[in-house]
Amino acid sequence: MQELKAGVHRYLTDVHPDKQPLFDSLATGQSPSVMFITCADSRIDPSLITQTEPGDLFVARNAGNIIPASDADLSAEGTVASVEYAVSALQVSHIVVCGHADCGAVKAAMNPVSASEMAQVSAWIDHADTGGHSDLSAAIEANVMAQLRNLMSYDFVSDAVETGTLTLAGWVYDIATGMVRVRAAETGGANGSGTFTPITATAGSSQ
Ligand SMILES: [Zn+2]
Fold it and tell me: pLDDT tens-digit profile of 28-49?
């Protein structure tokens, strides 16, 4: 904890003052255009990998970048509530679901016995979908696509997508190389992980 407090001190003295105009503009409201849903994994830093600033990304994180589908037996769920707020109140234009290499939640979903001692984890990863893949990379991609389909199970998402005010995208982040592979959502809901294509230094602006 001491390390964190020292970090806050450095932030207050060295970092925040440099961005004072930005924080002044953000002090009374936000209007992000992107919702970014990713795993709680400590190795992912959404702002770092997208080189965005405070105010740019509306972020929701949980183990496995999961969005339970609308028919899941949940009276309220934090990630879904965050999605509804992002779409209905903030009116974001894009939702990114970003999975990542070496994801522990996807590994657990591939081998549920490994998490059977943890009741909450077991129940949560029931909402993951690895597409039956035994290859971890394919399972990670399949889970991203499944979560995009789950997003589309909510009227407030599918209506906005069909109206053209919202797009969905699936990403997979590789920790070792920093590479992000992207696939536009296959919102129709067919199975399969599809082809994820790397965002390159020259093609990055097209996604
Ligand atoms: Zn993960």
Answer: 999 999 999 999 999 999 999 9
